[in-house]
Amino acid sequence: MKSQSLTALLEALLLAANQPVTVKELAAAAQLSETDTELALKVLKERVNKGQRGIVLREIAGGIQFFTRPEYKPYIDRLLQPQESPRWSQAALETLAIIAYRQPITRIEIEQIRGVQVDSVLSTLLERNFIKEVGRKDSPGRPILYGTTADFLKALGFDSLDELPQLESNLNRKRGR
Amino acid sequence: MDCQLRLDNFSGPFDLLCHLIETAELDICTISLAQVVDQYIAYVAQAEKYADLDTIGEFLVLAVRLLLLKTQVLLPTKKSAQLEQEESIIDEEAEQLVKHLEQYRRFRDLGRRLGQIMEAEADYQAIGPILSSEIRSPIIVEPPSLDLTALMSAWAYLQPLLARVQTVTVRPNQPTVEEEMASLTSHIDNGRPTSFRRYLGPKPSLYRLVTAFLALLELWRQSKITIEQDGRFGDIFIVGREDPG
């Protein structure tokens, strides 16, 4: 297959999927080697992202996905008139942050940091599939350990957890002891 | 202080404390904590009327820690060995609280940052046949280690237990007239009058009263007993008869 139609093939695959697709999945579907797929992807990405297009190709949650350009979002909303998604409460965001940076972590450990019970917030986050059970802690009662999911990465537009904003260290306040 | 503030506006006691410190433009340290203790207490006290016990309880736990801390800041230092020891414990508690609050604030700020990132990310609309946000697949939580053999052995364990289950119908304990007759007959002392009231016991149900009374009449009809009554609504005395047959 010519490289021209290769990129077109990948474009078709990515447009048909409505979720991040990994290089491996693309290679298997296109019956190509992963190296060839990656090369073709690079060409496609450059062509799409640098051209005057309404779409962008982004690496997200370990895969690749097409999105509309963010600057056109208000126009898209006017067209589709989507339901406004509810904003996350501060309690949910705090809990999410604690889990994201301290995972795997138990419910009790989260409650210690926040100073409040987190049962209902946890079930909301579980329901939204932002967090999941990742195992059991090897301590009395074998409490459930929580971690973040691929949906969490997608909601943030991150490719991996490495993109989480850095913990601002308050080291200048460190007390000697 | 601003009494318009409500507990629900805060995600927890530490959030309220951070708010008070930041409003006063203070750094997080022992002294600034002591400065906002009164505000914190006053705030929780007036919110007590509106919040449920669980919520207020979480705020009260921190109130106690803050009061302890304030005591330590206000008390003049004395040189008794015992006091010094006590003080160092309180010192430690204060330091822990400061650290805890700093840690909390870090996560609060990170949470807000994540919220901002998510909001910006919402401007990217995924392209595909269906908007992913419109369809939510059911969440299936699979137990971490489940295979066919585990399922089979669980079934093998359950099967004999299931076979043992029997259906039993439980009815309320309401004796029939016949049962009441047998019971009444066995209750009667031959020769000596038996009180019907005592037989019924205290506060018999209407059903029992009627059944027992019918049983009484039936026994009398069959000439198995003689009955006497002192007057209207008086107690009935029963005397057994020798079997006529």
SSE topology:
The complex is a heterodimer of chains A (177) and B (245).
Chain A: H1 3-16, H2 23-30, H3 34-50, E1 55-60, E2 63-68, H4 73-80, H5 90-102, E3 105-106, H6 107-114, H7 119-127, E4 131-136, E5 144-148, H8 150-156
Antiparallel strand pairs in A: 1-2, 3-5, 4-5
Chain B: H1 13-23, H2 30-47, H3 53-74, H4 81-121, H5 148-164, H6 177-187, E1 194-195, H7 196-200, H8 206-221, E2 225-229, E3 236-240
Antiparallel strand pairs in B: 1-3, 2-3
Helix pairs in contact in B: 1-2, 1-4, 2-3, 3-4, 6-8
Structure description:
The complex is a heterodimer of chains A (177) and B (245). By secondary structure, chain A is of the alpha+beta class. Chain A has two domains: 3-78, Orthogonal Bundle (Arc Repressor Mutant, subunit A), CATH 1.10.10; 90-164, Arc Repressor Mutant, subunit A. Helix content of chain A is 47%, strand content 14%. In chain A, the strands form two sheets. Chain A has a three-stranded antiparallel beta sheet with strand order 3-5-4. A two-stranded antiparallel ribbon of chain A has the order 1-2. In chain A, β4 (131-136) and β5 (144-148) form a beta hairpin. Chain A is globular. Chain B is mainly alpha-helical and 245 residues long. Chain B folds into two domains: 7-121, no CATH class; 177-240, Orthogonal Bundle (Arc Repressor Mutant, subunit A). Helix content of chain B is 58%, strand content 5%. Chain B is built from eight helices and three strands, in the order ααααααβααββ. Chain B has a three-stranded antiparallel beta sheet with strand order 1-3-2. In chain B, β2 (225-229) and β3 form a beta hairpin. The N and C termini of chain B lie far apart (97 Å). The model of chain B has no long low-confidence stretch (mean pLDDT 79). At the A-B interface, β1, β2 and α5 of A face α1, α3 and α4 of B.
Notable traits:
heterodimer; A: 177 residues; alpha+beta; Arc Repressor Mutant, subunit A; three-stranded antiparallel beta sheet; two-stranded antiparallel ribbon; 47% helix; globular; B: mainly alpha; 2 domains; 8 helices; 3 strands; 58% helix
